[in-house]
Write a structure and sequence with these properties.
Blueprint lengths: L3 E6 L12 H4 L2 E7 L2 E6 L5 H11 L3 E2 L32
Antiparallel strand pairs: 1-3, 1-4, 2-3
């Protein structure tokens, strides 16, 4: 099953209400509160009803996860170049 992760931006203490919402809390696996953000990981078998409920009620505060965590994946020919030795070049040739 796929991960169910939400990153919410908190503008004031009233947005912490999601942590007291009984419809949501019984499905939370991981909860992190840091800075102005709440990171929630829900159980993978969480129903679509609960996911829709979260998006409808708290959707204005949901942010993409990569908005605070930059993608550090290397880019080929920018961060690295593949070098193939002579003994391995035959693996690239089409048969």
């Amino acid at each position: 099953m796929e991960e169910v992760i939400y990153l919410l931006h908190i503008t004031d203490k009233s947005h912490l209400a999601i942590l007291k919402d009984k419809n949501v809390t019984k499905h939370i696996l991981t909860k992190l509160v840091f800075g102005e953000y709440i990171y929630l990981e829900l159980e993978s078998d969480t129903s679509d009803k609960i996911k829709s409920y979260i998006v409808l009620k708290y959707g204005d505060n949901i942010k993409p996860i990569n908005s605070i965590v930059r993608d550090f994946s290397p880019i080929m020919h920018v961060d690295y170049t593949i070098k193939i030795s002579q003994e391995h070049k035959h693996l690239l040739e089409k048969s």
